[in-house]
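## retry 2 of 3
previous attempt timed out at serialization; input unchanged, resubmitting
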Amino acid sequence: MDVVMEYMDTYVFDGVYNQAAALTSTTPLPRDSLLRQSLSLFVFIYAYIVAFYFGTAGLSYRYIYDKKQELHPKFLPRQKLLEMACASRALPTITLMTVPWILAELHGYSMVYKEWSKFGYVYLGVSAAMFILFTDFCIYWVHRLQHHPLVYAKCHKLHHKWIVCTPYASHAFHPVDGYLQSLPYHMAVFIFPMHEY
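## retry succeeded, writing output
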């Protein structure tokens, strides 16, 4: 993420913060400011996830999804719009909860490394497999735990509202549900070394 943020700072955020400072007659926030980093990360991650969500769901809906499924009796009226509205409400909160993980990574608290040969080239492949196994295992158990009666109604039931799903249901869940299922991806780089690419 440091490479992405360096690029975004150079080509986008420096100009934005300089313009904001000029408009408010203040000093621009420096790149090492936690406030600036948090705001920049939020804007970048949120813009990315919105583009990713609507882009992939839209393309999937247009070219892959079998629209005959919308004739199913359990397909809700205006369901596609309901799924998009649900995702649109969840994504800002999920993004906000994600920012501290990325900040910690940017500030060197994770086990992300830059040198290709630091742990050997075989480890690059092994770490990719470990990442997939770790995240898949954890997401399975997070999902199972969300079916516990104390948790289900509060944060996971919404996920099961969409019985006959469209691709727009991919992010249509309670923000806490979405965040909990994303946690393994963020935790992995704090548990075992991963190359930044």
